[in-house]
Each structure stands twice: as structure tokens, then as C-alpha cells.
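Appendix B, record 7
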Amino acid sequence: MPDAGPRAFRARVTGRVQGVGFRWSAVREARRLGLRGWVRNADDGSVEVEAEGAPPALEDFLAWLRRGPAGAFVSDVEVHPVSTGGARGDFDVEF
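C-alpha cells (predicted):
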């Protein structure tokens, strides 16, 4: 039986993802899914995300990241697994 424990990933979302409410929409979606982690704008115009939680919720969040909110245009999502335990508390915006 596969392990259904928490997992984590870090992602870089590129496209038109800054100035369109991407971060705050990501916070709402991640909290709805019960995830922990953070989202922040990167200097290169992309958005960086680290999320930790149950694998089904992470898959749903990743699908959302590939679409983004209305007004965004996601051209790519680069995903890398990371160690669990790094996320503290809720999912929030980092500045």
C-alpha cells in the first residue's frame, strides 16, 4: 500500500503571473486544500511556491498552479520535490 503521508514540493511558475493576484489566489486555494507553505514573487517575474501536505491535495494544488487565477497566463510550472517539515503553520505570502 502506498504511503499517503505528507509530501512537499517547490515550484517556479512562469508566464504572466505577477500583478494578476496570483499569490493571494494561491493562498486561498492552498488553505482550502489544507496545505502548509508559502508563495512569493521572484525577481525574474516568476512566482515561487513551496507546498506541503497530503499527496491528493498537492496534486490538486499543482493542477491549480498550472491554470492560475483569472487574468494570469501560466506558460510553465517547474516542480521539484523537497523534504517535508520545512513548512510552518498556515500557507501564506512571503515578501
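Remarks on this record: Residues 55-67 form the longest helix (13 residues). The two ends are 40 Å apart (CA to CA).
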